[in-house]
Amino acid sequence: MDDLFSPRGLSGRTLARSDLASLAGGAPQVVTDCDLEEADLSGLDLTGWRFERCNLRKADCSGTKLEGSVWQSCRAPFVSFVGANLSEAVFSGGDYNNSSWRRATLTSAKFAGTKLTGADFAEARAMHIQFEEVLLVSAKLPGFSFRKETLRKVDLSGADLRKGDFRMTVFEDCSLREAMVAGSRFEGSDLRGADLSGLRLVDANLFRGATISREQAGQLLGELGLSVR
């Protein structure tokens, strides 16, 4: 019988695929202060695992099963989560700049205090995803759905949000500055807490049905070449 009081986890080590493969599919592990730079973790079953303060720069987690996993203050620029299952995963703190989440499953995932500048979320499945205090500057989120979500302190400056679904979304202290929003839907959204400066409006009806402030209305009309006096 397993000793219920024995610690399960790896700490302060440089790890490779072989170190994790033997534990994959078993009891969830806690990985703390470990170096997994450029490690190949693709396709492993790491459901429910917890990673704390680890280095996963350029690690390959494509196709990895990571449902319910927890990521605390990890450094993972250029990490690949292509096709990974990250349903109900939690990302708290950490650097995931220029990471790839293409075709990943992110249902009910949560991101708080994380850096995702330049991240690629194209074709990701992400119903009920939560973002709070997140940098998504220049991120790729075409066709992404934020419907009925509340975004708090999310910076989407310069992001690709084309054909996004923002219906009934609430923005609180956010930025859409110079974002690409052609074809997106904003019906019923509350944009009063978003910086809308520099948006390139392709369709004058883009924000029909959304709530904006008087100042924002002036900004949008200015983008159409109209002067508000």
Automatic annotation (TrEMBL):
Gene3D superfamilies: E3 ubiquitin-protein ligase SopA. InterPro entries: 5peptide_repeat, Pentapeptide-BTB/POZ_domain. PANTHER family: BTB_POZ DOMAIN-CONTAINING PROTEIN KCTD9. This is Pentapeptide repeat-containing protein. It comes from Sphingobium cyanobacteriorum.
